[in-house]
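@channel sequence for tomorrow's demo:
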Amino acid sequence: MTEIIALLLEYNALATDHAEAAALVFLRVGAVMATLPAFGEATLPARLRLVLALMFSAAIFPAVQPALADVPLEQGFAAEVVIGLALGLFVRLFILCLLTAGSIAANATSLAQLFPSGAEAQPAIAKLLVVAGLALAVNMGLHLRVVEYLVLSYDILPAGLWPSAALMAEMGIAQTGRAFALAFMISMPFVIASLIYNVALGVINRAMPQLMVTFVGAPALSLGGLVLLALVAPLALAVWVHTLNGFLASPTAALP
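structure tokens (generated this afternoon):
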């Protein structure tokens, strides 16, 4: 019995020594989870998101604990929350990428109003790309990539220090540009198909003015958009997941 009490006292002292470091890790991870895709979605129950935050904190704590040994909790409280929110928003931009690509594709193929979805009136194509992209990313080990990303973040943004405004601006601009470039690349087949359709429709209208080409061509455009979506979506989502994993493995790779 005495040995058990001594062991518990030893564990208690060990826990006391690392309590502040663990709290700092949880502050950063909890802030990341507030905006992280898949694991931080608002549709998930709050208790589940809390459990996920605790699990991610426990996973990265052994790797980052030496860097937190001399950082007092009161000094790093606000800084860790700000850093965590920024890290989560950088990843969240990949969801904006899919939403933008889906909106462009839906407007190009006249499907934006045909299949409205959700309270925010996002096109169904955008919702489909987001759900499929998240499912694919999780299936390909998104949780492992997130752990690597969180561990790497302590080398880029040290604990207890306010992030450099210049570094945050560079990372934000680079990531925003990357997200919009990827969105335009994913939606480009739909834009090209829409351009070809409209040019062909104009030629037919000039050749046969009496034919109501709009009533004939509109269903063909919508059907063609759905077929093109089935053909393009797998490759586009594969490129999207590859880009997402590349960013999580090296967040500063796109910086000048």
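heads up for whoever presents: The chain has one domain: 2-249.
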